[in-house]
């Protein structure tokens, strides 16, 4: 694509492993519904989140300062499989649990300075397939859509975070739950 690299592995995990990891992650992870401040007003995020990783991989995200919890057993397994396939290093993971079609994530780019200039971000999707939308920062009408299937891995790289934003919109259709994990490499700033 223009100004970015996307690599999609449609069946990174087998469906039976997906069900296994959804159960483990719901159990092992300490999920929170954070509040974020937008123009001085505070809102609950429309999803549950968690931040895990190596000690010291502190991350600012949507006005939140997140200190990681130590890696859980399921996260260590998933991290090591993803490092083996991508050949990239990751020291942290942001988890999002979309409970149903009402849960969502707004337009943003993962362009925080602790991620470095052209970060590699590996996004593992478990559960309900959802549309992952992209739009160009300089032309919001230039859009495209990637369906993130159960067990898929999407790796974002190159200049993509400079030129494109992404979002996961809510849906009027009845949708079941989905857990997404974005593995990242945080550098000291
Ligand atoms: O849920 C997803 O697929 C996307 C998550 C995302 O964009 C993020 O965590 O920054
Ligand atoms: Fe993102």
Automatic annotation (TrEMBL):
Key word Iron present: yes
Domain Fe2OG dioxygenase residue range list: 89-187
Obligatory cofactor(s): Fe(2+)
Domain of life: Bacteria
The keyword Mitochondrion belongs to this UniProt entry's keyword annotation: no
Pfam families in UniProt: 2OG-FeII_Oxy_2 (PF13532)
GO biological process per UniProt: DNA alkylation repair
GO molecular function: catalytic activity, acting on DNA; demethylase activity; dioxygenase activity; hydrolase activity; metal ion binding; oxidoreductase activity, acting on paired donors, with incorporation or reduction of molecular oxygen
Keywords from the named record: Dioxygenase, DNA damage, DNA repair, Iron, Magnesium, Metal-binding, Oxidoreductase
PANTHER family with a match to the protein in the record: ALPHA-KETOGLUTARATE-DEPENDENT DIOXYGENASE ALKB HOMOLOG 3
Protein name in UniProt: Alkylated DNA repair dioxygenase AlkB
UniProt organism field: Lentimicrobium saccharophilum
């Amino acid at each position: 694509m223009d100004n970015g690299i996307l690599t999609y592995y449609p069946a990174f995990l087998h469906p039976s492993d997906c069900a296994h990891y959804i159960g483990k992650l719901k159990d092992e992870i300490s999920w929170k519904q954070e509040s974020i401040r937008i123009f001085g007003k505070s809102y609950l995020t429309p999803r549950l989140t968690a931040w895990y990783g190596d000690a010291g991989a502190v991350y600012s995200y949507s006005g939140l300062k997140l200190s990681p919890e130590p890696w859980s057993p399921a996260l260590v397994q998933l991290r090591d499989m993803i490092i083996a396939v991508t050949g990239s290093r990751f020291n942290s993971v942001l988890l999002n649990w979309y409970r149903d079609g009402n849960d969502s994530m707004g337009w943003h780019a993962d362009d925080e300075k602790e991620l470095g200039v052209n970060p590699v971000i590996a996004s593992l999707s478990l559960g309900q397939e959802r549309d992952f939308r992209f739009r160009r920062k300089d032309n919001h009408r230039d859009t495209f859509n990637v369906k993130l299937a159960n067990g898929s891995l999407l790796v974002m790289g190159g200049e993509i975070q400079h030129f494109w934003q992404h979002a996961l919109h809510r849906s009027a259709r009845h949708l079941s739950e989905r857990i997404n994990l974005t593995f990242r490499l945080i550098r000291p700033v």
